[in-house]
Each structure stands twice: as C-alpha cells, then as structure tokens.
Automatic annotation (TrEMBL):
Residues 111-494 form the Molybdopterin oxidoreductase domain. This is FdhF/YdeP family oxidoreductase. Its cofactor is [4Fe-4S] cluster; Mo-bis(molybdopterin guanine dinucleotide). The lineage of its organism: Bacteria, Pseudomonadati, Pseudomonadota, Betaproteobacteria, Burkholderiales. It comes from the Bacteria. It comes from Paraburkholderia dilworthii. Belongs to the prokaryotic molybdopterin-containing oxidoreductase family. InterPro entries: Asp_de-COase-like_dom_sf (IPR009010), MopB_CT_YdeP (IPR037951), Mopterin_OxRdtase (IPR006656), Mopterin_OxRdtse_a_bac (IPR010046), Prok_molybdopt-oxidoreductase (IPR050123), YdeP_MopB (IPR041953).
Length: 783
C-alpha cells in the first residue's frame, strides 16, 4: 500500500468547506464504494433511512434535507466498502503475520464475511458453522464455576434491540458483568449528574439551541467528532449568540466553519466565525476554572445586592428547587484565588471574563466531551459544572441546560436499555417480573475491573458485542496479557481489528451486519432503534445489500448464543429474531418511557424519552437539585509526580485525529491540526521543547510515571511545536494507550484517565519509518 507523504503544515482554512468535500471523494475512492452504495449516503439520517453510525449528535434534518458530514461519510464508506476479508485471506495470513500489520492496514482489508474459529495448530482463523460457533460458546459458558467468570462487553453501536436482548441473555445466564465503551467515555457524566440533578443524561434538545444566547463548549472537538454540531453552532453564531471554547487547544474547527449546506458560503469562500472567546485551561484544569467562575458569580451577586441591582443568582430557582446552596456558597467564598488560578492554569482576568459572559447569558447551554470526562476528578468536575448552571437556573429552562455530547451513535441507548454493570434494584425487579426469572443482584465488572479480573484468573470468557477491546482499553501490555489468559474470546464485529488477534485459547470472530445494511428476517426488512445524545429515540433501516450472505444480524447472533446456552424455556429467542417488534414490546414493558414503543417509532424523527431534570423533577435522594461541595484536588498523582520530577514532568492528553473513528484509522492525516501522512506525533509547547533540551522534529520516547513500579512506555514520537499550554502534551489515541496505567481511573466512575497521564520524555532509541511507524512488531511495542 502506498503511504502518503508525511509532513507538518499548519492549516489556515475554515473547518469543513471544500477541504471536506475533497476528502469525501478520496474516501469513497479508497473504499471502492460501489455505485449503488453511493446513494446510501443520501439516506443517512433521513426518514426511512438509517441512523448514521458515526456520532450521537441528533439529526435536526431527520425529516428534511440531506445533512452533509465528512466524517459521517467516512463512517458509512468504511462500512459500505467493497473490500472483503474472506476465509481465503486467513488461509494466507497467520495471526502472527497479521500482528505485524498496523491498525490502519488491518482495517483496510475490508468487511469480514464468515464466522471463524481459531486453529492453534496452524495459527490461523478457519471457517466454522454458525451453530457450531454457538455451541462452542455455550460449552464454555456452561462449564464455568460461576457466571461471574465471564464478561460481556458492549460497544455503543449496538441497537436498543440488540443490547436489550443481550442483557436479557446475560442476566438470565446469571451475571451483571457488563463492561462497555461508556466506561471509558461519558461514565463520569452518567455517574456525576445523578448526584446533582438526578438523571445521568443531558437536559436539552436541539430546539434549545435555537433559543440559547450563550454556549460554553468544554473539552470537545466537534469539527472532527461531531461535525453536524457545527451546523447548529453556526446558526447560533449567526444569531449573535456568544460561543466560548474551553479547551487547552484552540481547535481549528471551533474558529471558523464553512458550511457545505450553504452554497453561497462555499462559492464565495466565505465562512462563519464560531467561537468568539477561547479560554485555555491547562490539561485537567477545568475543575479549578469552574470553581473560579462560580466564586465570581457569588461575588457579583454580593455586589449587585449591595448596590440594589438585579440579583445575579436565580433566587427563586434556588429556593424552590435546590438544597445545599449555603454550604456550597460558603465553600466558594473560602476558596483561594491563588489556588484557583494555579490549578486552572488560566489567568485571573480570564476567569473573571468567563464569569462575566456566563452571568450576562439569559439562556446558557454547557456542552462537554472527553476533555472533561477522562480525568481523575471528572465526577466532581461535572457535578460542579451542573452546580454552576443551577446557580442561575440554567437547567430545565428554554434555551438553557446541560449537554453532554456522547460518542458512539447508540451509547446512550445501550445504557438506557440495561447495559449497566450497576443496575438498580427497581430495574432488576421489573426485568425479573416480566421474564419470570431471578436476575443476579450483585453488581458486575466495568472495563478496568474486567481486565483486572482476567489478570487475577477470575474472568475466563470474554464476549464482545462490537468494539475493539484490546486496543481501546488502557495499559496495553497488561490488557493483552489479560485477554490471552482467557479460555475463550468472542468478537461480534464488522471489520478485522487487532482484538481478533489478541485472543484466548479458543477464539471466535462472528461477522455481523452493519447498520447501513438491509436486515431481512423471514423475508421482512427489520428496523432497529437508537437513542441520540438528546434522548430522541428513532428507527433506523439499512439500505445496502449485506457485505456477505453468511452474515447474521447482531440480534440473531445474541439469540443464537442464548438459545445454545440457555435453551428456550423462558424466552423464545428465535421468535424474537424473527420479528424485532417483539423485543421492543419487551423493552416497553421493562423500561420507563417506552410505552407504545412500536407505535411511537412511526413518528418521523421518533420520540423524546423524557428526562426528569429537564422538567425540573429531581430524582435525587432529597427530591431537589443538589449543590455538592468538592475541594480543588492539590495532591493528585500528577501533583506528586511533579514534586518528584519538577517541570520535566508533563501532562499528556490523548485525543482523536480527524481521520479516525476511535480505534478505526481511516487515514493518516489530521488536517485541522496540520498533520499529514503520520500519526506518531507529540504536540508540545516550543518553550517546553527547548527547556527539555530537544528540538522540533526530533523523535522522543514517552514513559509514564506511576507508583506501581511497572515501566510503561510508548516510543518514537515526532516532536511537533504546537500552541498548547506549558507543561501539557497531546498525542493520538490509541497509540498512547500503553501509557495509561490500569489503576489510574476517575474516582467514582472508573474511567481510564486518558486525558491526564503524567509522563517524562527522553531522546528516542527506536527506529521509525518516515510515516512514523515503528520498525518493530506490534508485540515489541507493547512489551
Ligand atoms: N470522526 C469521529 N467521530 C467521533 C469519534 C471519532 O473517533 N471520530 N469518536 C466518537 C466517540 S466514542 C466520542 S466519545 C466522541 C469524542 O469526541 P471529543 O469529546 O471531541 O473527543 P477527543 O477527540 O478525545 O477530544 C477531546 C477534546 O478535549 C480537549 N481536552 C483534552 N484535555 C482537556 C482538558 O483537560 N480540559 C478541557 N477543557 N479540554 C481538554 C482536547 O483538546 C480535544 O479538543 O466522538 C465521537 N465521534
Ligand atoms: N487513550 C484513550 N483511550 C480511549 C479514548 C481516548 O480518548 N483516549 N476514548 C475512549 C472512548 S470515548 C471510547 S467510546 C472507546 C471506544 O472503544 P470501542 O467502542 O471498543 O472501539 P471502536 O474503535 O469504536 O470499535 C471499532 C470496531 O467495532 C466494530 N464495529 C463497527 N461497527 C460495528 C457494528 O455495527 N456492529 C458490531 N458488532 N461491530 C461493529 C468493528 O469491527 C471495529 O473494528 O475507546 C476509549 N479509549
Ligand atoms: Mo466514546
């Protein structure tokens, strides 16, 4: 495969625009998307079309015109590719040989066509019949001492129907071991918000964006990860709303945007300014920053009160709807400005500026992404942000509210329908009642605890409904050791990925239909449903011919495993497969908000699931929205490491390039950040590069600092001078996952701290190709 030229070249154009159209064409050619399947792209997010398998941003245009999204096209093209990975491919490649290929190369081979089982004697995957595969799974599961010795992963593309049937099967089998991608993603949101506003979901809908006058965008890169959100922000900006980006990086896509939906803007080479203010905390500085803003709100309110002006706090909201405000305000008054400024990494006057913008806003929306959720103190940070919003009644009011922007297109829905390692008693009671069984009560394992349990020899069977577990997870060498210690690993996936190669003693690859493909059961096309980031539930129908005749839908695979393992005494699994509306009937009976599910899915655009906090109903222990007091952490592992190593100690954030979907690498460019043809780069401030005695363009090896005596390293990164706060570094995920210690997680959420890794740099000792690939095997990288 010809590798593109590697270079660094700052990007000077607006986001999207003609550049995006060019890249769309390149991707369609690269994936050799066949004629008929081009048309698919026009059906993306359309009535009677399919839900884009890209991000979880809602579809405003679900009922009208085609919404263009470069990265949505990439996601669809990757699935609609005409390239195939057949059994013949595996005849030609041993697992050992495939291990030498990069993640980018593995992905490029195309769609998996047949179920495969690992043949240890020949170190190859070979074909297996579907029923034999299900029997192998049943034999393993039924041989375990206890159902808790198996773990059942879910990645957030699984539909509500697939996820619900999966959790039913697993709970009937007897465990709550549901690690899922959410554990690595918005878990801090899902665990943090219930403590303040009662529900772990956002409180806004797209309509609120039409009425907001102020938007605070925390730790998010929408031009890459939620491109359709830019269309919304563009409208807000045009209307004169103030948009603030709070991010260590000045992400290009938040500066200017040329909308492909607007021909005049494209033809005149025009663009719209998105963010007018950039506040740039150091990595992990948000908690202190938000605390500073909240403290200033109190000060401004004191001043207003003293001079008889309109109060800054929403006193009615505070009195009627909240508890704990006095203690919260006392804590803010007592907080030191020096600590705030030092820990936020934001100058005092900028904290005041942000507070001014916040209190001027009559309708404020706060959005956030991984920049807030992947730190040790992410749960307190999100609780504090919701408290800041509560101070001025910015929750449950038109044009205002909390907007966590989720990742995978159905990650929110999966949790709603029961992919939850810590289920509530009420949910289990209801599930048991409807399906007539006694669900397991003990809470299960999340992602990090699953890996640890494998290392401890406890978990022996891993089943993954989608995803790329071995690559998305932290502490790569330990994760690989864990996966290889399993008796059985099973991956239900669409495309070849490295997790298939990091396998247990027995291993299966079970290829499945993607969301873009027609799902026929007994000759009837089935739709599946998903919930977006704003709690809208809608139906999705595939349009493309399946990539192979030997694919089963995720639902059929789950039913096959369940039937083989449990039999059909309690649930007629195969009947559920024949008609997905039966699964929806089950969801409607078990889960609140889904009454008349099948009927309500017929509404174009679907229905809103109802979020209590949006209605100012507070499902907290006190029945009110709660203010919580948290201190600024000044003794984290990063603080401790800095004490030991001084200013040489850096904080590394790991982030996505423009050409990837999580672990799926579409290409080697990150054009908004000026990186082309390579991924092994490390963004650093020029003064830090000099201070450490390096030069721009030099390669360095990264080691992380963690008190367990294990040396963790990722080597051969090209130093790129970048506008990033001093003391902070940025690099791409997943290459940097070997650096994230398994035990370094967000308190109360268990999320790996992949946005704040304490690291040291040294001159590189490894050999790297021009495009930045390590000239060693992937085994060696993880060793
Ligand atoms: N094309 C594409 N779309 C995607 C994905 C993809 O990989 N590709 N992934 C999907 C998934 S699963 C998810 S979760 C989302 C992820 O979407 P994002 O949440 O945008 O994820 P990241 O790329 O990890 O970038 C996070 C942003 O946080 C900033 N940041 C880092 N550390 C801090 C910090 O300490 N404070 C603040 N304030 N900001 C910080 C980074 O500079 C970056 O701009 O996107 C989804 N959509
Ligand atoms: N260092 C670091 N680590 C991170 C992150 C980070 O920012 N930094 N982000 C974390 C986040 S937010 C997330 S969500 C996780 C992502 O973790 P995962 O969800 O596990 O990873 P993905 O890369 O999204 O999974 C891609 C694979 O899913 C399969 N697939 C694609 N479509 C389908 C489908 O329709 N059905 C099925 N069954 N399979 C399908 C394909 O085989 C593909 O190879 O990674 C986390 N890891
Ligand atoms: Mo995610």
């Amino acid at each position: 495969m010809k590798k593109p030229e590697a270079r660094i070249e700052p990007y000077t154009h607006p986001a999207a625009g003609w550049g995006a159209l060019k890249y769309v064409a390149i991707n369609l050619l690269k994936e050799k998307v066949a004629g008929g399947n081009y048309r698919t792209l026009l059906k993306q997010n359309q009535p009677n079309g399919f839900d884009c398998p890209g991000c979880a941003w809602p579809d405003r245009e679900h009922a009208s015109t085609f919404e263009f999204c470069e990265n949505g096209v990439k996601a669809v093209a990757a699935e609609a590719t005409s390239k195939r990975v057949t059994p013949a491919f595996f005849e030609e490649h041993t697992v050992e040989a495939l291990m030498a290929q990069s993640d980018f190369e593995l992905e490029q081979h195309g769609r998996l066509t047949d179920p495969l089982v690992y043949d240890a004697l020949r170190d190859r995957y070979v074909p297996i019949g579907w029923n034999e595969a299900f029997d192998l799974i049943a034999r393993h599961l039924n041989a375990l001492d206890h159902p808790d010795d198996a773990a059942f992963y879910t990645s957030g593309r699984a539909s509500n129907e697939a996820a619900f049937l999966y959790q039913l099967f697993v709970r009937m089998y007897g465990t709550n071991n549901f690690p899922d991608c959410s554990n690595m993603c918005h878990e801090a949101t899902s665990r943090g918000l219930p403590g303040t506003v009662g529900v772990g979901k956002g409180t806004v809908t797209l309509d609120d964006f039409e009425h907001a006058d102020t938007l605070l965008i925390f730790g998010q890169n929408p031009a890459t990860n939620h491109p359709r959100m830019l269309g919304e922000l563009r409208e807000c900006a045009k209307r004169g709303a103030t948009i603030v980006s709070i991010n260590p990086l000045k992400e290009r896509g938040l500066e200017r945007f040329a909308s492909p939906q607007h021909p005049v803007e494209m033809l005149t080479m025009g663009s719209t300014r998105i963010s007018s203010v950039f506040i740039r905390p150091k990595v992990g500085g948000d908690f202190a920053l938000i605390k500073g803003v909240a403290k200033r709100v109190i000060e401004l309110d004191d001043e207003a009160q003293a001079s008889g002006l309109e109060r800054v706090l929403d006193l009615d909201f505070l009195a009627q709807h909240t508890v704990g405000f006095d203690a919260f305000a006392d804590d803010l008054r007592a907080e030191s400005w020096d600590t705030i400024v030092a820990e936020a990494g934001v100058p005092f006057d900028e904290v005041l500026k942000l507070a001014d913008i916040y209190v001027k806003g009559r309708a404020v929306i706060s959005t956030w992404g991984m920049g807030l959720t992947q730190h040790k103190n992410s749960v307190p940070t999100i609780q504090l942000l919701s408290n800041l919003m509560m101070m001025r009644g910015n929750i449950g009011r038109r044009g205002a509210g909390l907007c966590p922007v989720r990742g995978h297109s159905n990650v929110q829905g999966d949790r709603t329908v029961g992919i939850e390692e810590r289920p509530t008693e009420a949910f289990l009671d209801r599930l048991g009642e409807v399906y007539d069984f006694e669900p397991p009560r003990e809470h299960g394992l999340d992602v990090v605890n699953t890996i640890q349990a494998m290392l401890d020899g406890k978990v022996k069977v891993f089943i993954g409904l989608g995803g790329n577990f071995s690559i998305a997870t932290p502490d790569t060498p330990r994760t690989w050791e864990a996966m290889r210690s399993c008796a059985l690993t099973v991956h239900i996936t669409t495309k070849l990925n490295r997790s298939h190669l990091i396998h247990g003693r027995d291993a299966l690859i079970l290829p499945t239909l993607g969301r873009t493909e027609i799902d026929l059961q007994n000759g009837v096309a089935q739709g599946v449903s998903v919930e977006d980031s704003m709690s809208m539930v809608h139906i999705s129908y595939g349009m493309n011919k399946p990539a192979s005749e030997n694919l089963l839908s995720e639902i059929a695979i789950v039913a096959g495993m369940a039937q083989a393992t449990l039999g059909s005494e309690k649930v007629d699994w195969l009947a559920q497969t024949a008609d997905y509306s039966l699964i929806r009937d089950g969801i409607a009976q078990v889960i609140e908000g889904f009454h008349d599910y099948n009927e309500r899915l017929k509404t174009p655009g679907g229905f809103h699931l109802g979020v209590a906090s949006r209605e100012r109903i507070w499902k907290t222990s006190s029945g009110k929205a709660q203010f919580l007091v948290h201190a600024i952490a000044v003794d984290t592992p990063i603080h401790q490491a800095r004490k030991q190593y001084g200013e040489r100690l850096m904080t590394l954030m790991t982030t996505r390039s423009h050409d990837q979907y999580n672990t799926t690498i579409y290409g080697l460019d990150d054009r908004y950040r000026g990186v082309y043809g390579q991924r092994r780069v490390l963004f650093a401030h020029k003064d830090d590069i000099a201070m450490l005695g390096f030069v721009v363009g030099q390669r360095v090896d990264i080691t992380s600092v963690w008190a367990d005596g294990i040396e963790r390293h990722a080597d051969g990164f090209l130093l790129v001078e970048y506008d990033i706060p001093r003391g902070c570094l940025g690099a791409y995920y997943p290459e940097t996952n070997p650096l994230v210690p398994l035990s370094s997680v967000a308190d109360g959420a268990g999320t790996p701290t992949s946005k704040s890794i304490p690291v040291l740099l040294k001159a590189s000792k490894v050999t790297v190709s021009e495009t930045g690939e390590l000239l060693e095997t992937h085994e060696a990288v993880a060793a």
